[in-house]
């Protein structure tokens, strides 16, 4: 789907099929692209200008400024300068309440599960909008540099981001006017930047150590057939390079005989000291010693810091990250010897002491740190974007299934077997049974989508399990298994376990579904969530009622000699009543009528109940042919 753009200045038509890669970071964001001549990924921007601080400043006229210019307002106008918006994406106020005070801007208190709102100059913004401002800025930056309009992107997110955080990121992209072709895990992108996983034959286990400004993540990945699987993640959402700066600031205060509380009370002094600390930290990544001067409260002080001292100061923070690494290794059930590669990500991994300690922890002579650690995620996103743009036909990268896969159960309900966002390859199964005595065939219809009723989802195919030996309803044990391989091809297996009768078919779930289709379907699922729930519970009630009717009719038919004429007549009337009411869409009325029928039949049913009925009344059943 190529986009056609008309340049309104000169009337020429421009076709841009470039797909950009975006690292939407907590502290900093970057945009990257693959050069079509040398096939290398590069970050857009001049040297000092590649990194865009993830900061948004909104002035009194609601004008929006993003990046370095916004950052300069952080202290002077903290209530209308938003930083760390990534921490708010897909989160509710309740999720964030314990940290609410650490944000310099106003989070609107709310006790619902809804996404948190931010109030700026009396206007309400949500994190999706705010993130879209950063994305729009990055999009415009790319357009200015490339001289053409850009419509498609790949955006990265932390591996631990849940569904709603991923969806929120996707929506932010959409709001920024970007068609988000894929949301990629940051550690996956970082590995790609180092070329790990690009060779299909390669099988590797990788540790990605990402120490940014305010967050730390460790991810253990396994790559097989070009598929990245997250084995485990760990980390600390409030540990990062900013903590290094803080320890230096504290240290200098003590050295200079200043009270840290006094400095903190004066916002501009505090900011000056913090910036000096960061400068020293960065300098120590290159040199063994830092010396400088600072003016605080109109007094000039000399500053100095040895690399050795700095390492002692940050040691507890580094130790903490290694503890997380140990936990991630434990969760992945691996020893450090089983890790083939360690990838260093995040600006803070420029600190030599961090590299040293990580090398030692993983018992490696070398770690992957040749690329710019603050650029690797964006570079990897650009490589993924290049693959999705169709420029590299040799590789197929698929890491999750975008929509849920399931089958139709009685009442036209969607029964999900593999939920959306499951890692590929993936396999799952569930047992079903028949709903009618002697049923010999079972139709299995396979659907893709998030809605409760299959009629609202997309049908992928259907097949029939035949030759089921005659058994009472509820007795056959039919195992339906979905096997989704790395290429997104779905295989469905159905086996009747008592007899061994089986059937297998191949289905291609991704076929013909563009990302736009996926998005539309997800959006519809969100919008219809409540109505769907009602429809589902009505359908479930009707199915239950139909089962009760079927069983009661059978009961009367098979046991007429055991029942009094009165009992038979009463039951028949109650059945007719329930059948009539089932035609209406009133769940409560159906339940009342069903209860009445159950009440009438219970005394004699108990007398003559055979096991099969009990079984048939519970459990899920497929529709009959
Ligand atoms: P995020 O992923 O959280 O957006 P980044 O990966 O951009 O963050 O990392 C930002 C952090 O990297 C900041 O704390 C910054 O001070 C630190 N940093 C940048 N350059 C260096 C350097 N040369 N040495 C040490 N730390 C650095
Ligand atoms: Mg980052």
Largest sheet: 6 strands, mixed
The count of strands amounts to 28
**Shape descriptor:** elongated
| Total tally of structural domains | 4
Mean pLDDT: 86
Residue stretches low in confidence (pLDDT < 50, at least 5 long) are: 1-15
Bound molecules: adenosine-5'-diphosphate, magnesium ion
The CATH class of the largest domain turns out to be: Alpha Beta
Termini separation comes to 40 Å
CATH superfamily of the largest domain: ATPase, nucleotide binding domain
Defining traits:
36% helix, binds adenosine-5'-diphosphate, alpha+beta, 625 residues, 4 domains, 4-stranded mixed β-sheet, binds magnesium ion, single chain, Nucleotidyltransferase, domain 5, Substrate Binding Domain Of DNAk, Chain A, domain 1
Kindly describe this structure.
The chain is elongated and about 105 Å long. It folds into four domains: 19-240 and 313-398, 2-Layer Sandwich (Nucleotidyltransferase, domain 5); 241-312, Alpha-Beta Complex (Actin, Chain A, domain 4), CATH 3.90.640; 405-520, Substrate Binding Domain Of DNAk, Chain A, domain 1 (Sandwich); 530-614, Up-down Bundle (Substrate Binding Domain Of Dnak, Chain:A, Domain 2). The longest helix has 30 residues, at 529-558. Helices cover 36% and strands 25% of the residues. The strands form eight sheets. Strands 3, 4, 5, 6, 13 and 14 form a six-stranded mixed beta sheet that branches. Strands 17-16-15-20 form a four-stranded mixed beta sheet, sandwiched between helices. It is α+β, with helices and mostly antiparallel strands and 625 residues long. Residues 25, 212, 346, 377 line the site of magnesium ion.
């Amino acid at each position: 789907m190529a986009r056609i753009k008309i340049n309104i200045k000169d009337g020429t038509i421009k076709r841009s099929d470039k797909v950009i890669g975006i690292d939407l970071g907590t502290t900093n964001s970057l945009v990257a692209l693959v050069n079509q001549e040398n096939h290398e990924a590069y970050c857009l921007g001049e040297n000092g200008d590649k990194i865009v601080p993830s900061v948004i400043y909104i002035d009194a006229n609601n004008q929006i400024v993003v990046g370095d210019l916004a950052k300069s307002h952080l202290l002077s106008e903290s209530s209308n300068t938003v930083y760390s918006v990534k921490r708010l994406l897909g989160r509710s106020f309740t999720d964030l309440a314990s940290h609410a005070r650490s944000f310099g801007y106003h989070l609107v208190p709310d006790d619902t599960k809804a996404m948190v709102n931010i109030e700026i100059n009396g206007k309400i913004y949500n994190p999706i909008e705010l993130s879209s401002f950063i994305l729009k800025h990055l999009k415009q930056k790319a357009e200015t540099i490339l001289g053409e309009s850009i419509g498609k992107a790949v955006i990265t997110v932390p591996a631990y981001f849940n569904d709603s955080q991923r969806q929120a990121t996707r929506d932010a992209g959409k709001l920024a006017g970007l068609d988000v072709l894929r949301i990629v895990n940051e550690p996956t992108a970082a590995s790609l930047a180092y070329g790990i996983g690009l060779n299909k034959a390669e099988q590797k286990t990788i540790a990605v150590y990402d120490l940014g400004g305010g967050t730390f993540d460790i991810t253990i990945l396994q790559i097989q057939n070009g598929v990245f699987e997250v084995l485990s993640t760990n980390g600390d959402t409030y540990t990062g390079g900013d903590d290094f700066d803080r320890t230096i600031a504290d240290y200098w205060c003590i050295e200079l005989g200043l009270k840290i509380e006094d400095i903190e009370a004066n916002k501009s002094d505090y900011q000056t000291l913090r910036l000096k600390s960061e400068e020293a930290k960065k300098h120590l990544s290159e040199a063994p010693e830092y010396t400088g001067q600072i003016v605080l409260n109109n007094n000039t002080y000399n500053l100095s810091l040895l690399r050795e001292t700095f390492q002692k100061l940050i040691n507890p923070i580094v130790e903490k990250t290694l503890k997380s690494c140990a936990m991630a290794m434990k969760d992945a059930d691996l020893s450090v010897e089983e890790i083939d590669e360690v990838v260093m990500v995040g600006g803070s991994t420029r600190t030599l002491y961090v590299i040293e300690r990580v090398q030692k922890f993983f018992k490696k002579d070398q770690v992957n740190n040749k690329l710019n650690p603050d650029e690797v995620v964006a570079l990897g996103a650009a490589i993924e974007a290049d693959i999705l743009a169709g420029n590299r036909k040799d590789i197929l990268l698929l890491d999750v299934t975008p929509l849920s896969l399931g089958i139709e159960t009685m009442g036209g309900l969607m029964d999900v077997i593999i939920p959306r966002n499951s890692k590929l390859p993936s396999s799952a199964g569930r047992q079903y049974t028949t709903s009618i005595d002697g049923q010999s065939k079972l139709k299995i219809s396979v659907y893709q989508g998030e809605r409760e009723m299959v009629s609202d989802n997309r049908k992928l195919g259907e097949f029939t399990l035949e030759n089921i030996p005659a058994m009472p309803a509820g007795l056959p044990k039919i195992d339906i298994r979905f096997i989704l391989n790395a290429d997104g091809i779905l295989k469905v297996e159905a086996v009747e376990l008592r007899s061994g009768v089986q059937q297998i078919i191949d289905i291609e779930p991704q076929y013909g579904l563009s990302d736009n289709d996926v998005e539309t379907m997800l959006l519809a699922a969100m919008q219809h969530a409540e109505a769907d729930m009602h429809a589902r519970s009505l359908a479930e009630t009707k199915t239950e009622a139909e089962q009760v009717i079927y069983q009661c009719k059978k009961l009367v038919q098979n046991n007429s000699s055991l029942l009094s004429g009165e009992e038979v007549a009463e039951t028949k009337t109650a059945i007719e009543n329930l059948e009539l009411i089932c035609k209406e869409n009133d769940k409560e009325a159906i339940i009342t009528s069903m209860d009445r029928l159950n009440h009438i039949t219970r005394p004699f049913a108990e007398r003559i109940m055979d096991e099969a009925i009990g079984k048939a009344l519970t459990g899920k059943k497929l529709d009959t042919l």
